[in-house]
Design a protein that fits this description.
The chain is an alpha/beta fold. It contains 6 helices and 9 strands; from the N terminus they run H-H-E-H-E-H-E-E-H-E-E-E-H-E-E. The protein starts with a helix and ends in a 5-residue tail after the last strand.
């Protein structure tokens, strides 16, 4: 089966920028106090549910995976880009990182207690996001939680320069109401929503959605 062009483009772009991307984020962590608070709340909910390990989907060089571990979670990362996975393994050799796509996760049904998709759904064409949300539901254990972060809006941007390199891929700003509805349609229950204003080099509002798979009290 021929791979969708957006996957090939996304992989190629992140393979190209992986080293410089990882170096920049190691010196300029982009998370704000509110972002970190959402990650901390997610971690506490997952620990309380006791539903299992956490998958950091679109993990890039592994920063968020490592942060989740620092919050007391058993975390592993999955990324489409082999170069990003290599950077993550080099930086955090004691953590697990695998190659994979959010539209077809190589994970068993109900096998993880939590999912973080930290700005990683933004390269998926909007018409395919229901597939991604269905995968979230499939691999989450009952009582598991998912935290999704993305740039708020309703537009497609074509990116041609990134981290000092020429690239070619699309990124989508997404409406929080729409993403929340997709999660609900996939069988998840919205728990918390945060929409904050842009900071530093950000140009638009940033959205964070926390949802839960029913099945445990």
């Amino acid at each position: 089966m021929t791979e969708p062009s957006y996957l090939s483009a996304t992989r190629a772009a992140y393979d190209t920028v992986a080293v410089d991307y990882a170096n920049l984020l190691s010196t300029e962590p982009p998370e704000t106090p509110l972002d970190l608070a959402m990650l901390a709340a997610f971690a506490k909910l997952v620990r309380s549910a006791g539903a299992g390990s956490v998958a950091d989907l679109g993990c890039g060089p592994g920063r968020i995976t490592a942060h989740l571990r620092s919050l007391g979670l058993t975390a592993f990362g999955i990324d489409l880009s082999p170069a990003m996975v290599a950077e993550a393994r080099r930086t955090y050799p004691d953590l697990r990182f695998d190659e994979g796509s959010m539209t077809e996760l190589d994970l068993k049904d109900g096998s993880v207690g939590g999912i973080v998709a930290w700005y990683s759904i933004i390269h998926t064409p909007p018409e395919l996001l229901p597939v991604v949300c269905a995968e979230f539901h499939r691999v989450l254990a009952p009582g598991g939680h998912v935290l999704v972060a993305f740039q708020a809006g309703n537009e497609r941007q074509h990116i041609e320069q990134g981290y000092g390199h020429s690239v070619s891929l699309d990124a989508y700003r997404l409406a929080p109401d729409h993403i929340a509805e997709l999660l609900i349609q996939a069988g998840l229950v919205e728990h918390t929503r945060l929409l904050r204003g842009p900071e530093a080099r950000e140009k638009v509002q940033q959205a964070f959605l926390l949802a839960r798979k029913p099945g445990m009290s």
